[in-house]
Amino acid sequence: MIKKLGIPREVKQDEGRIALIPQHIAQFTGLADIFVETQAGLGSGFTDQDYEDAGAKIIYSAEELYEISEIICKVKEPQPQELEFLNSSHVLFGYLHLSSNLSLTKALLDKKLTGIATEMIMEGKEYPLLIPMSKIAGNLAVQKGMQFLEYSSQGKGVLLSAISEEKSSIVTVIGCGEVGRASIQKSIQIGASVIAIDVNEDTLKDLKNKYGENISTLVGGTEEAVNAIRSADLVIAAVLLPGRKPPVVVTEEDINAMEKGTVIIDVAIDQGGCVEGVKPNTHSEPFEIRNGVIVSAIANLPGAVPRTSSIELSTNLQKYVDNLLIENWFDKYKNNESLRPSLQIHNGLLLSEEVADSLSLTLSKLV
Ligand SMILES: NC(=O)c1ccc[n+]([C@@H]2O[C@H](COP(=O)([O-])OP(=O)(O)OC[C@H]3O[C@@H](n4cnc5c(N)ncnc54)[C@H](O)[C@@H]3O)[C@@H](O)[C@H]2O)c1
Question: Is 36 exposed, middle or buried (0-12, 13-18, 19+ CB in 10 A)?
Answer without folding.
Answer: buried
